Amino acid sequence: MSDQPTDTSTDLTINDSGAIQPVVECKGIRPIKDFPRDLTGLSPEQIEHHYKALRNSHISLNRSRGQLLRRSREFSEARERFLTTLRGYEERLVLIGQEKAEAMRLAQDMHQELEAFDSKQQALDKLLQDLDDAKQEAGFWSIFKISELIERMRAVLRGKNQTNG
Q1: How far are the Cα atoms of 33, 152, 156 from residue 142, in angstroms, in the given order?
Q2: For each of the chain's 165 residues, which pLDDT tens digit applies?
Q3: Which range of residues forms the domain containing residue 117?
Q4: 113 lies in a domain?
Q5: Phi, psi of 35 (to 5 degrees)
Q6: Which one of 14, 20, 29, 157 is separated from 75 by 20 to 30 angstroms, measured CA to CA?
Q7: In this structure, are residues 119 and 161 in contact, taking their beta carbons and an 8 Å threshold?
Q8: What whole-number distance in Å separates Cα of residue 154 and Cα of residue 70?
Q9: What does the alpha-carbon distance between residue 50 and residue 18 come to, in Å, rounded to a whole number?
Q10: What's the CA gap between 35 and 42, in Å, rounded?
């Protein structure tokens, strides 16, 4: 017989009980139950056929095993790349969160400074209004009131927010 597997699916064999059975094809992966346990009573052609079928099944299994190993390796590499990318994203997310927290602190500080500036501006506006009112009056008390308002203005400008009178 030749080394080429032949399509023997149309061949028939007679088993031990005398029943006619088709001979199984020699290609692909086959379960072990397709092969006889005992070779006695088989013709040399049948033995050769089963040998070739067993060999082809073994070759297919080895090929499938190789593909499985290659795909497993590729999957592991892809998983590692994915996890590395994910860790990179997590690190970037942490950095962004820290930057955002710092930006929030800066914004709060600026807001407090703006509120302080606004309250200082309002105090100065009130003092200027009081100063204008004091200028309208004449006499000793207006001079005393003006000097008191100037002292209050100095205190506001130094950062002491005093609002008397």
Answers
A1: 120, 15, 21
A2: 444 444 444 455 555 555 455 555 556 667 777 777 788 888 888 888 878 888 888 888 899 999 999 999 999 999 999 999 999 999 999 999 999 999 999 999 999 999 988 988 898 888 888 777 777 776 666 677 777 878 887 887 777 654 444
A3: 12-158
A4: yes
A5: -105, 140
A6: 29
A7: yes
A8: 82
A9: 19
A10: 12
Number of domains in the chain: 1
In a domain, 107, yes or no: yes
Segments in 23-43 forming alpha helices (H): none
Cβ contact 127:145 at 8 Å: no
Other residues' Cβ atoms within 10 Å of the Cβ of residue 83: 10
Determine contact, residues 35/52, Cβ cutoff 8 Å.
no
In a domain? residue 18: yes
Work out whether the CA dihedral 141, 143, 147, 152 comes out positive or negative. Answer: positive
